[in-house]
Amino acid sequence: MSALPSPTTLYKALVSRDSAYDGIFYVGVRTTGIFCRPVCPARKPKPEHVEYFANRSDALHAGYRPCKRCRPMESGGSPPTWAKRLLQKVEGHPTERMTDSDVRRLGIDPERARRYFKTAYGMTFQAYQRSLRMGLALREIRSGGGIVEAAMDAGYESDSGFRDAFEAIIGSTPGRADAARAVYAKWIDTPLGGMLACADDEGLCLLEFVDRRMLQTQIETLRRRLGCAVVPGEHPVLRQIEEELAAYFKGELREFKTPLRAPGTSFQMKVWERLRAIPYGQTLSYGEMARDIGVPDAQRAVGKANGDNRLAIIIPCHRVVRADGTLCGYGGGMWRKRWLLDLERGERKLDLG
């Protein structure tokens, strides 16, 4: 994701079908669940019914499906026949995971598919499948709408089919679960893209960018550790973190007060506790982290524990850098890490309007 022009400029380009913006942004239509290229010939929605994305992956993770008229997944030119077959197969059955063996049965080399999708769409074929599947579940969480309506919007002919697909992705039905064992999930919009927040009565147990590849794994880990279902819903903890994140991104909050529930191994919890102690606007190296928790030779293990962190921003793994001060890996993407550090150092002018 990169910075986009103002919504006013983008909507003007959309209405005029300005070809100069083709490939620069994509537009999601909330009322249809479809995303398009700016040059799409379809009737233009009202400005309050659209949102903009810098790339196709962001649109997919937001729960939008590619438009069948302007074919946004083909904006770089029409794909070869074999790639069209894969796209049609996945778009027709988005919740069914195609393995390499399935791809071979279609007479297609899986490695060829991986390379082509990576070059043409910026993601591998498997990542494209994951994006579609997760997008369906996230759209239901984000909308808070009725189950039947969500099922029809997602292209399912029956409520039961949607429930089965949702359960396979998130781990529970989209209806109400046993309140005593439920973790409630909510989509939160931020200047850095959508985030998924999960919480129960004990505290916030997940906060992650929805386009992170490890999101589904994190959800599964959460379910396993807490022995609970993850369902869409509201909760006081979710409202608190949403308000605190808004203040944080405005530069008005430096310390989060939202209660946390972050179960992990004893080593992980030591690392996460040290991360929370890094002051706002400052950084620490992996070596310093390892030394501070009493295992100076465990830099690699510290790095892995950082990657296993399920509470982005709140447990600030973005504040960890190399020994020479340069930036290193971040699950949410290096551009987000740089953005967050610039914000905390007072080096970023906010334009959230």
UniProtKB/TrEMBL annotation:
SMART domains: HTH_ARAC. Its cofactor is Zn(2+). GO terms for biological process: DNA alkylation repair; methylation. CDD domains: ATase. GO terms for cellular component: cytoplasm. Residues 84-180 form the HTH araC/xylS-type domain. Binds 1 zinc ion per subunit. Zn(2+) binds at residues 36, 40, 67, 70. It comes from the Bacteria. Its EC number is 2.1.1.63. The active site is at residues 36, 317. Its main location: cytoplasm. GO terms for molecular function: DNA-binding transcription factor activity; methylated-DNA-[protein]-cysteine S-methyltransferase activity; sequence-specific DNA binding; zinc ion binding. Keywords: Activator, Cytoplasm, DNA damage, DNA repair, DNA-binding, Metal-binding, Methyltransferase, Transcription, Transcription regulation, Transferase, Zinc. It catalyses: a 6-O-methyl-2'-deoxyguanosine in DNA + L-cysteinyl-[protein] = S-methyl-L-cysteinyl-[protein] + a 2'-deoxyguanosine in DNA; a 4-O-methyl-thymidine in DNA + L-cysteinyl-[protein] = a thymidine in DNA + S-methyl-L-cysteinyl-[protein]. It is found in: Cytoplasm. InterPro entries: Ada-like_dom_sf (IPR035451), Ada_DNA_repair_Zn-bd (IPR004026), Bifunct_regulatory_prot_Ada (IPR016221), HTH_AraC (IPR018060), HTH_AraC-typ_CS (IPR018062), MethylDNA_cys_MeTrfase_AS (IPR001497), MethylDNA_cys_MeTrfase_DNA-bd (IPR014048), MethylDNA_cys_MeTrfase_DNAb (IPR036217). HAMAP family: OGT. Involved in the cellular defense against the biological effects of O6-methylguanine (O6-MeG) and O4-methylthymine (O4-MeT) in DNA. Repairs the methylated nucleobase in DNA by stoichiometrically transferring the methyl group to a cysteine residue in the enzyme. This is a suicide reaction: the enzyme is irreversibly inactivated. PANTHER family: METHYLATED-DNA--PROTEIN-CYSTEINE METHYLTRANSFERASE. This enzyme catalyzes only one turnover and therefore is not strictly catalytic. According to one definition, an enzyme is a biocatalyst that acts repeatedly and over many reaction cycles. Belongs to the MGMT family. This is Methylated-DNA--protein-cysteine methyltransferase. It comes from Fimbriimonas ginsengisoli.
